[in-house]
Design goal:
The protein is α/β, with parallel strands linked by helices. It folds into two domains: about 220 residues, Rossmann fold (3-Layer(aba) Sandwich); about 90 residues, GMP Synthetase, Chain A, domain 3 (2-Layer Sandwich). Helix content is about 30%, strand content about 25%. It has eleven helices and 21 strands. The protein has a nine-stranded mixed beta sheet with strand order 4-3-5-6-7-8-9-14-13. The relative contact order is 0.11. Monomer. Its EC number is 6.2.1.30. Belongs to the phenylacetyl-CoA ligase family.
Length: about 400
């Protein structure tokens, strides 16, 4: 993707500011680099990447690029392992994030007459408060539920006549199944679902949309870069628009770091153009996607990336074969009688790796026939023999947050 002059000007300003901070994160990172020699996009692409390990080493506030007096909030990554990543925000950062989120809602066709039920978590995590700030800026009615308490969620959804559900795909599915079980689908007023925080397959998407009777939109973001709200799908469901006046995106080869041609799948790298509290230069997200060429049918001027296809660190190696959750999503997508929900258990027994795939089967589907079919397709498409266990709908656990799909018990 070619860098715009306006983006380059903002990047140069950021580089000069960040390398002038005595003892600052990027002054150390770019030590020995003459920032004045960065005169083209190609020059910029020679700068070293930053990554989550850098941010953890900077704990707690080593990323901070402005005085304490200008910091109004912090957020932290939702990861449960390792040193957390702390991201400080200025008042302008908070306002910029709300503006980007407002664009997401507008891209999904929301107006100030919508009633937005927010189920992602609040607190240090960026999700809930981001969804709320954008909706309030739009002028919509916010129903700030947060996660959990499904009975109360459904009660408020009915009584407040919520028109928009914001959720992880896992919790949206849990709610959809519970609403269907109670036989109240015709009583809810939902029209749209805005889903983020985890990658989800086409089969899961179809189930949620059908059971809730809504149009679904993908929202993208990560704590290190504002939070959710930096990218959004439109009504044409062809990738996600991202806000290139706030962010510069690159797609690189995950192994070599080389820039990939438009259209090729690689790792998304993000540079913040206007962030003040904790700007990031060439930040490796681990998210796998690609640029989508050409203009979108919706006519919006913002460029697009594909929906997130997986993560470079999602990969599991079994019997010498690299396996991504997205491969299993795709494999199950076209298997009749298989639900969207699955779980993988990997064990090392008797000197060899055993992969067991638990798959929920739709009512009336022959268990043995389904297991046989999936086992054959798994061997054909992924290249190893798996143990397939078909279980009933609802037997696998549901999550109010993100679902864990793969459990590796070998270590």
């Amino acid at each position: 993707m070619e860098m715009k002059q306006s983006q380059f000007d903002l990047i140069k300003r950021q580089l000069k500011k960040l390398t002038a901070i005595e003892g600052g994160f990027y002054q150390k990172k770019f030590e020995g680099i003459d920032i004045d020699s960065i005169k083209t996009q190609a020059d910029f692409e020679t700068l070293p990447f930053s990554w989550k390990g850098d941010l953890r080493e900077a704990y707690p506030l080593g990323l901070q690029a402005v005085p304490d007096s200008e910091i109004v909030r912090i957020h932290s990554s939702s990861g449960t392992t390792g040193t957390p990543v702390i991201i400080p925000y200025t008042r302008q950062d908070v306002a910029d994030w709300a503006e980007q989120f407002k664009r997401c809602y507008e891209t999904a066709g929301l107006t100030n007459l919508d009633r937005v039920q927010i189920t992602p978590g609040y607190g240090l995590w960026t999700a809930g408060i981001g969804f709320q700030a954008g909706a309030e800026l739009l002028g919509a009615m916010v129903i700030p539920m947060g996660p959990g308490n499904t009975d109360k969620q459904i009660r408020m959804m009915l009584d407040m006549k919520s028109t928009v559900l914001c959720a992880t795909s896992s919790y949206a599915l849990l709610l959809a199944e519970e609403i269907a079980k109670r036989g109240i689908t015709d009583q809810i007023c939902l029209k749209k679902g805005i889903i983020g925080s985890e990658r989800w397959g086409e089969k899961m998407r179809r189930r949620i949309a059908a059971e809730l009777g809504v149009q679904l939109y993908d929202i993208y973001g990560l704590t290190e870069v504002y939070g959710p709200g930096i990218g959004m799908s439109c009504e044409h469901e062809c990738g996600m628009h991202y806000w290139d006046d706030f962010l510069y995106f690159e797609i690189v080869d995950p192994k070599t770091g080389e820039i990939l041609p438009d259209g090729e799948i690689g790792e998304l790298v993000i540079t913040t153009l206007k962030k003040e509290g904790a700007p990031l230069i060439r930040y490796r997200t681990h998210d796998l996607t690609r640029f989508l060429p050409g203009e979108c049918k919706c006519g919006r001027p913002y460029p697009r990336i594909d929906t997130i296809l997986g993560r470079t660190d999602d990969m599991t190696k079994v019997k010498g074969v690299n396996i991504f959750p997205s491969q299993i999503d795709e494999l199950l997508r076209d298997v009749q009688g298989a639900s969207s929900e699955y779980q993988v258990m990997i064990d090392h027994l008797g000197g060899k790796d055993i992969l067991t795939l638990f798959v929920e089967r739709e009512k009336g589907t022959d268990r043995e026939q389904l297991e046989y079919e999936i086992q054959n397709i798994f061997k054909l498409k992924i290249g190893i023999t798996a143990v397939i266990k078909a279980v009933d709908i609802g037997d696998l656990p549901r999550s109010e947050k993100k679902s864990t799909r793969i459990f590796d018990n070998r270590y």
